[in-house]
């Protein structure tokens, strides 16, 4: 396995709390880095007949173990492109993308698929549960796909569903439960194999406000009690206020980072103010 480079100059856009890998190892004041992007670009349509679009244009940031991070940015800023790279569904045109010490750009397609299955969990806006399987069977899928069997699967599935408050619905089908419960089952499926990182794409987009709040509290619970490192793309400042840090992106680069160091209400207000700056509008405060 390839390791992170030990010497590294932090990019200008790194958060104030960022440290090099060597720093974090030596001083142990920061948890280890789970994800590192350095000058990542993704250029679409760079053939003769089409105009090239730099969807990502030199993106750099680090994610530390046990962080709960939101990614925000206007439409077209590169959020989907970024998620596709992190998910291993697409490759960067240039730059470095290290996930859990593995250089994603250097992995063969087969290794990338296996790495993705073992190390990442995904939650989407549309739940993406299979209607022909019970919730428990849906949650078991990542373990079955990884070749695990019988009792080990059952124990892990029931512990996870219990933790997420849906143990009573294990034998129900997705169409027999509420949207909020479906999304909780989708979260259970995403974390049942204890991935290194949970990636969520607008996870509250199809939920009513009470279910959205319950889901965000679950993300916090996973984060604090199971140390799940989470990266959530959202356009919703209220959802983002549940995380510990927001990375704002614009034109394919990091615009700024906002670390929560006050109440959720104050963080929410700071997020609104930063969004206003990002969009070049007046301060909303
Ligand atoms: P977001 O998710 O923030 O809306 P995207 O990552 O979808 O942003 O898009 C970033 C930029 O890349 C946009 O200008 C978009 O038009 C362009 N883009 C995205 N996908 C493609 C593609 N497959 N081919 C060409 N351009 C693309």
What does it look like?
The protein has 285 residues and is an alpha/beta fold. It has one domain (21-278): Rossmann fold, CATH 3.40.50.300. The protein is 35% helix and 22% strand. The protein contains nine helices and ten strands. The strands form two sheets. It has a six-stranded mixed beta sheet with strand order 6-7-8-3-9-10, sandwiched between helices. The protein has a four-stranded antiparallel beta sheet with strand order 2-1-4-5, with helices on one face. Helix 7 links the parallel strand 7 (197-201) and strand 8 (229-233). Helix 4 packs across helix 5. Adenosine-5'-diphosphate binds next to strand 2 and helix 2.
From the structure above, extract its key features.
single chain; 285 residues; alpha/beta; Rossmann fold; six-stranded mixed sheet; four-stranded antiparallel sheet; 9 helices; 10 strands; globular; disordered N terminus; binds adenosine-5'-diphosphate
Write the layout of secondary structure elements.
Elements: H1 21-27, E1 33-44, E2 53-64, E3 68-72, H2 79-86, E4 94-99, E5 102-103, H3 109-119, E6 120-123, H4 135-145, H5 150-163, H6 179-191, E7 197-201, H7 209-226, E8 229-233, H8 237-240, E9 245-250, E10 253-259, H9 264-278
Parallel strand pairs: 3-8, 3-9, 6-7, 7-8
Antiparallel strand pairs: 1-2, 1-4, 4-5, 9-10
Helix pairs in contact: 4-5, 4-6, 6-7
Bound molecules: adenosine-5'-diphosphate.
Adenosine-5'-diphosphate is lined by residues 44-45, 53, 55, 73, 75-81.
């Amino acid at each position: 396995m390839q390791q992170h480079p030990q010497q590294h100059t932090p990019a200008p856009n790194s958060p104030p709390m960022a440290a090099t890998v060597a720093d974090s190892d030596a001083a142990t004041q920061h948890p280890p880095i789970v994800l590192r992007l350095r000058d990542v670009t993704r250029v679409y349509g760079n053939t003769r007949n089409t105009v090239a679009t730099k969807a990502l244009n030199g993106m750099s940031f680090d994610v530390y173990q046990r962080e709960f991070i939101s990614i925000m940015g206007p439409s077209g800023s590169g959020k989907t492109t970024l998620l596709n790279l992190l998910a291993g569904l697409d490759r960067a045109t240039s730059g470095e993308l290290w996930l859990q010490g593995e250089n994603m750009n250097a992995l063969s397609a087969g290794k990338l698929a296996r790495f993705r299955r073992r190390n990442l969990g995904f939650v989407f806006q549309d739940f993406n549960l299979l209607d022909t399987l019970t919730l428990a069977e849906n949650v078991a899928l990542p373990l079955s796909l990884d070749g695990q069997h019988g009792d080990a699967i059952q124990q892990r599935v029931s512990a996870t569903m219990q933790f997420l408050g849906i143990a009573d619905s294990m034998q129900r089908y997705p169409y027999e439960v509420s949207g909020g419960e479906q999304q909780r089952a989708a979260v259970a499926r995403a974390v049942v194999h204890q991935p290194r990182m949970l990636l969520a794409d607008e996870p509250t987009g199809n939920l009513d406000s009470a279910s959205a709040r319950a889901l965000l509290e679950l993300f916090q619970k996973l984060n604090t009690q199971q140390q799940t490192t989470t990266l959530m793309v959202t356009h919703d400042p209220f959802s983002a206020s549940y995380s510990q840090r927001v990375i704002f992106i614009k034109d394919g680069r990091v615009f700024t980072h906002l670390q929560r160091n006050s109440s959720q209400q104050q963080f929410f207000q700071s997020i609104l103010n930063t969004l206003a700056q990002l969009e070049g509008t007046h301060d909303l405060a």
